[in-house]
Design goal:
- The protein is mainly beta and about 220 residues long.
- It has one domain (about 1-155): Methylamine Dehydrogenase, Chain H (7 Propeller), CATH 2.130.10.
- The protein has no helices and 20 strands.
- The chain has strands at about 1-5, 10-15, 20-25, 30-35, 40-45, 50-55, 60-65, 75, 80-85, 90-95, 100-105, 110-115, 125-130, 130-135, 140-150, 155-160, 165-180, 185-200, 205-210, 215-219.
- A five-stranded antiparallel beta sheet has the order 16-17-18-19-20, with no helix packed on it. The protein has a four-stranded antiparallel beta sheet with strand order 4-5-6-7, with no helix packed on it.
- A hairpin with a 5-residue loop joins strand 1 and strand 2.
- The chain is globular.
- It starts with a strand and ends with a strand.
- The mean pLDDT is about 95.
């Protein structure tokens, strides 16, 4: 398990709750930590305008990009070679090996709070304080759909299920959308949601809340 902290570090935890590694080197809050596909590496992203690749076994830092943006969120692509990062309004796509910024998505008008790749690697969903969720086609590098949440509520979390058929969106409660026509298939009252995720075969949706509890809903 991985955790990111305002104390400028990320931490690696064992299944028994024991701390295994502390990942340092940042000079400001670590806003995201994301696991690479092999399970051997992770990336941390920070408000210090850098992101870094770490070896989980040793806790060492393999590479760090030069300062560019204050990063608000990050996620690995399923292939483990591409990284997505969110900033004050721009989503940047990176080739991790070369650290090259290979694409930028600039349609959000406020801080990008969360992003999620579909398991097949074709799509990226991004949520923002601007109250919208945008879905991007990574093959065409364009926005193919925008979801405007009811009530002008900032988006805090987005997650695809494993099949890519459903997208969960957290903010003031949870909404689940189907990815063919982007219609709403479920709504769950959960208070202020800080994170969302699907269970096996999208049989349930879990939501972490600002109250410090996890709520589970049948989907």
């Amino acid at each position: 398990m991985l955790s990111a902290s305002a104390d400028k570090t990320a931490r690696v935890w064992g299944t028994d709750g024991a701390q295994l590694q502390t990942l340092g080197g940042h000079t400001a809050e670590v806003t995201a930590v994301t696991l690479q596909a092999t399970g051997d590496y992770c990336v941390t992203a920070s408000l210090d305008k850098t992101w870094a690749l770490h070896d989980l076994a040793s806790g060492g830092t393999i590479l760090r990009v030069a300062p560019q943006d204050a990063y608000t969120c990050a996620a690995f692509h399923p292939d483990g070679l591409i990284l997505g990062t969110g900033t004050a309004s721009v989503v940047r796509i990176w080739d991790v090996k070369s650290q090259a910024n290979v694409a930028n998505f600039e349609s959000h008008t406020a801080a990008v709070t969360s992003l999620a790749f579909s398991e097949n690697g074709y799509y990226l969903a991004t949520g923002s304080v601007d109250t919208t969720v945008k879905v991007w086609d990574l093959r065409k590098l364009k926005n193919i759909h925008t979801i405007a949440e009811d009530g002008a509520t900032p988006i805090t979390s987005v997650a695809f299920d494993f099949s890519g058929q459903f997208l969960a969106v957290g903010g003031a409660g949870v909404r689940v959308y189907e990815s063919k026509g982007w219609g709403t298939v479920a709504r769950f009252e959960a208070g202020d949601v800080t994170g969302v995720g699907f269970g096996k075969a999208a049989s349930m949706v879990a939501a972490g809340t600002s109250e410090g509890v996890v709520k589970v809903f049948g989907s």
